[in-house]
Fold:
Amino acid sequence: MNSITTTTSPATHTRLRLTTRGRRVLATLAALPAVAALGVAIVSSGGALASGDAGAPSGSFDTVTVLPGDSLWTIAKDVAPDSDPRDVIDEIVRLNALPSSVLDAGQSLAIPAAYSAQAAE
Structure:
């Protein structure tokens, strides 16, 4: 009977070598979570400050309650019949910080005092 003998050689350890391109890829992958977190922080922190304005001073506006079927256009025409409704709508949207032009019945809107005086005449 033949016997087979095996000899084991000591394992050779090779050292991992990174090329310049490999180092750049590794650095990019390592920095990606930090860049994403920073981007989210920058985008979400803007909503908290909204604007640096102190707000409208007291007495510089009157309020109107939105009735069913009212739109910004009809309210602008009612409060300032002699003015361009687009300008009035723009001022109402800015004064009330409205996210869209959708109004709810019963909602209270601030109207610039200049237009309130015009409606009283």
